[in-house]
Amino acid sequence: MWIYSKKLQYPISIKNKDLSMAKFIITQFGGPNGELAASTRYITQRYTMPDEKGKALLTDIGTEELGHMEMVSTMVYQLTQGATMEEIKAAGLQSYYTEHGCALFPNDANGVPFNTMVFSSTGDPVADLAEDCAAEQKARAVYENLMNQTRDPDLLAPLSFLRQREIVHYERFRELYEEYVQKYYQPDFHSKK
Length: 193
What we know:
This protein is mostly helical. The chain has helices at 19-25, 27-30, 35-45, 52-80, 85-90, 94-100, 125-147, 153-183.
């Protein structure tokens, strides 16, 4: 069971509209390396972890990723708030606007809708944790790419915070991965004759 704290994990107060950045940042909401994919992946994988430590870690990080999805949504909303039709057209967001207005919809920066095929849940804790390490590194890279596209301090601060959390999550998954390899992974000796 979750308890919802009605505040963002990191405060966001963007003063300047930037629809072009909103178009790119939305990929961290519904893109293949975004927060929706991460939260769903981890919360799904937790059930097949072999011990309470693994279940707790996947639940904790999956829950935090839901909060990150809320942060990304807030950034997109603030970057587009009060946009005129001319601004929407200039940013190349007419297709998005046609389908969703100014509502949030999970898709990537190219407008491709979220698809559950972007994450893995194999039931093998070592394979799933390897996937989770890779997912965190890909999300970190996307946040860095986004940071390279802006000089707005109101936007750089939350992007930097989210980037740092990806690094922390990677380290926690890597530690558990290494522990599980030692504890549970058994090489297949049947092929040696």
